[in-house]
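This follows on from our talk about sequence and fold. Please put the record directly below this note.
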Amino acid sequence: MSTPEDRDLLGDRFVPKPHFSLVRHAIVDAPVEQTYAAARALDLTEIHSGLAAAAGWLRELPARWQTRRHGPPRRPTRLTVDDLAAGTEWTLLGEHPGSEFALGVAGKFWRPVIVWHRVEPAEFAEFSEPGWGKLVLTVGVRPYGAHRSLLTLDTRVLLTDPPSWLKFRRYWRVASPFALLVHGALLRTIAQDARQRALDAYRREDD
């Protein structure tokens, strides 16, 4: 019987040798079951960080300006992993149920208004059309002792040709501090929800 530790990392499956990466961890005061459920149900419209929200709002300004003649852009009322995969260019690349899932997208991230490109899971690892970057975000949960979890966010970017690598490197110098903010906000939000889920589970057991 395989365990989470025996499985391949989804990031290694889709982008084994990234050009750029960002990995953050957090120890969560909740078991793996509740922590993974919180990560899988995360609503990106409710991230608990004013700085991260401000960073995202600033990143969207060019798109807002571009569409100013057509009224304000529609804002989703909720945006979970499944909503992303069903309604945007992002795709759910794979999942180890209960321990890890991976989202992926191709894009020209360095442009003032990002150009997105959906690449299906079966084609993602081999996608190499020039002029693009491939981004994979994996969320992993592992046991950390008897009652806590180790939550990991792993973002990997691979560029498909040298000119794109140069453009992304310039972009990353500016964007990486904001990416750190977003990672931190995601970790805190998942951890808070996981602790609440664990507390609710303990209360039900006591009833």
Observations:
- The helical segments are 10-14, 32-40, 50-66, 81-87, 121-124, 162-206.
- Strands lie at 20-28, 91-96, 100-108, 115-117, 133-144, 148-159.
- Residues 108 and 132 are 5 Å apart (CA to CA).
